Amino acid sequence: MSLEDFIANFDYLDICHLTEPPPVISKSSSAYHSLHNFPSVHLRGRWLRGVSCGGRPYIRASHWANPQFRLVINSPDPNDPDGFATTVIALMQADRRRLRHRAPRLASIGFVLYRLPAGANPPMPRGFFETNHHIASVDFFFDSREVVKRLKLTPGHYLLVPCTYAADQPGEFLLRLLFDNPDRICESTLERVELSGLAATGPEPDPNYELFQPRLRRLFYEASGESMAVDAFQLEPILNCLLRDDHRAPYSMVSTDACRSLVALLDRDGTGRLCESDFRRVWDILRSWSRLFASFDPQRTAHVTSLDFRIIVEQAGYTLPHTLFSKLVNRFVNVDWRLDYPHFISAMSLITKAVAIFKNFDHGGRAVLPLEQFVEIAMTM
């Protein structure tokens, strides 16, 4: 067929990069061995609504939330005179064909590549994407099942971000990379729970606590009576009274459910009550979390977006995988994918309680406990 006839009869030309030798190639042929030794990486991921559906780079408010993968190229191609390394990147929308009876539309997908600075430890925060421009990307975002790009990169560390053209388009994807050398690495940057900052050291004590401690004791003893302990219903008016009188507090009300969560967080004996000595820690925790929440709520609406909530959780010292954070979001956000202040307190209490329970049973990074004890613990969360 002549080139003119080909152009006249075909609209698209797809170049296939095979990761496994086809059966028509003999195992004794040189083509089989050259293809069989072609290193490849297969990674699965998800764009989760309210968590990791960030959209293309020009949507600066949410692009940072997309899944991130670290690409490490240690050496150039052996036969490249310019010192470049050839990398083929393919992004495929996964599991779409099994849903075709529901007539789902293919999203417009693509990916972008950033160069990581020396010493960077992905996942990268929002500020990185606001100050750094991507160095490579797909030619166009297509509403096709798969997009492919062949790149020639210099050795170094890169951040690969698969994304959809528009934000808030959930779906699953398969990311495949083909290399010339086996010394190249591509891995997800967010696979396990990590603790830092407040989560590791605890909240900063309130320096003015002693000033209102006499009033606190009076309120506490009036509510507790002879039991010298308060439950969530008794804790609520105490906290609200103190918050209303504290000009430093960004919010003056906590809900009954939020107080239940705070009591469950520090209830060590399962009575559902707190003694006076526990209140100091409750106050410090509430004060620290409230300041974090308020920093993303300048208008004092007592609401933040789910993506802002993700940043707050990270600033509180908890780095969570997207799948785990998605479960947290689905439990506490409203229909507009926003989180109110009382539910924020409940969500933070749940995370903190879960980590504390694991630490109590941790043996080499694993926790093993009887079913009865597990059910008992689950009932308190």
UniProtKB/TrEMBL annotation:
Residues 37-189 form the Peptidase C2 calpain domain. One of its GO terms (molecular function) is calcium-dependent cysteine-type endopeptidase activity. One of its GO terms (biological process) is proteolysis. SMART domains: calpain_III. InterPro entries: Calpain_cysteine_protease, Calpain_domain_III, Calpain_III, Calpain_III_sf, EF-hand-dom_pair, EF_Hand_1_Ca_BS. CDD domains: EFh_PEF_CalpA_B (cd16196). One of its GO terms (cellular component) is cytoplasm. It holds the Pfam family Calpain_III. Keywords: Calcium. Belongs to the peptidase C2 family. This is Calpain C (C02 family).
